[in-house]
Structure formats: structure tokens, C-alpha cells
Amino acid sequence: MPLHIHRTHRSGWIRAGVLGANDGLLSISSLLLGVAAAHMSTSGVLVTGLAGLVAGALSMGAGEYVSVSSQADTERADLELERSALLNDFDGEHAELRDIYKQRGLDHDLASLVSRKLMDHDALGAHARDEIGITDALKAQPLQAAATSAASFLFGGIVPLIAGVFATKDNLIFVIAVISFVFLAVLGALAARVGGASITRGAFRVLIWGAFVMGLTTYVGTFFSLA
């Protein structure tokens, strides 16, 4: 029997990790390119990048925590509502779950048997999974999401910052742009590979948006340097 590897259980931390790393890399590289194009000194460019890296990581973590916490609050409220319904109308909840299974293709008797067996084993868990759509794999985890987002932002954002450290003033923009494009492509391909999508499409998609954002911020920096 073939072994199927599913990826849904990793979707939460993958989403937070990819979003954080991509945001960190793109935000910091664009920030560095913008201030470098405005002819700021190399030390000023790096200090700006470092400040942006710290602020971005903290903001990313805080934002993800608040967002996922709101989702977790909603899940808890739904579970409490379901728990109350099970206490006050167990038979009605059984009928509700039975009808869900009938809509999925089971006949009345089998749907009733399955519903009864599952509710005898774990009534709240059965309704959480099949009525509300809450599972252990997809349950909101605010702290995990926040930590993943902050760490991945740091990981992504430190790449162009390190590139800027080793670049000279004359080739600062070129080095940051090239290194950022390379890592953006790698990040896009890796995200696609882990998610089971096309590696080429994933890399190309990230590069297109990356080029647009970095090009625009570089133009803004150049514009103000000429003003």
C-alpha cells in the first residue's frame, strides 16, 4: 500500500514561517536599497537596516500573536457553545451530526450508528471536527505562530543586512539586490517544495513581486536624493 504524505498539519507554521522570512528579506532589502539610493553613508544604511530588522521582527511577532489569538478566541467560543448544546440537547446534537454524515454519502442507519459511536467516544471532539472544522492539526496556536513569524523575519531580514556589511559603498546596491534576489528565489522554491507545489512557479512568483517592491523603493530613494 503506497504511503501518502500529507502537508495540511504543517500549514500553520509553514504559513507563518514563509510569510515572516519573505517579509523580512523583502522589507529589509527594500529599506536598504531605498536609503542607499538616497546616498546615505554605508554606516547609516546598516544602522537603518538593523533598526528595521528589530522593529520588523517584533511587529511581525506581535501582529501574528494578536491575529491568531483572535482566531483562538473564536474557536474557544464555538467549543463552549457546542459544549452547552451537548449538555442541553444531546439527542438533537446527535441528529445534527448524523445529518452531516448523511450529506457526505452515508445512508440514514449507518450515519446514525457512526454518529452515536463517535459521540459515545468523544462527543465534543466529533462535533468540533465535523461540524465546526476544528482539529488538533489546524487549531490556532498564537505563541507558536508569533515565535515562528518573528524568528523567520529575523532570518530573512538578516540576509541583505549581512550582504550590506561586506559590500563597498560603490557596489552596495548591486550586492544587496543580487543576494536578495537569490535568496528570494530559494525561499520561494523551498516554500513550494514543502507545500507540494511547483518549485519553478513558487520561485518565479516571489521574484516578480520582489523585483517590483525593491525597484519601487530604490526609485523612491533616488527621487529624494535628487530633490
List the uncertain runs.
none
Largest sheet: none
Rg over alpha carbons: 25 Å
Oligomer: single chain
Query: How much strand?
Result: under 5%
Question: Helical stretch count?
Answer: 7
User: What letter string, H or E per element, gives the SSE order?
Assistant: HHHHHHH
Distance between the termini: 68 Å
Can you tell me about this structure?
It is elongated, with a radius of gyration of 25 Å. 84% of the residues lie in helices and 0% in strands. By secondary structure, the chain is mainly α. The protein folds into two domains: 143 residues, no CATH class; 53 residues, no CATH class.
Secondary structure elements and pairings:
Layout: H1 11-37, H2 42-88, H3 90-103, H4 108-132, H5 142-166, H6 172-195, H7 199-226
Helix pairs in contact: 1-2, 1-5, 1-6, 1-7, 2-3, 2-4, 2-5, 3-4, 5-6, 6-7
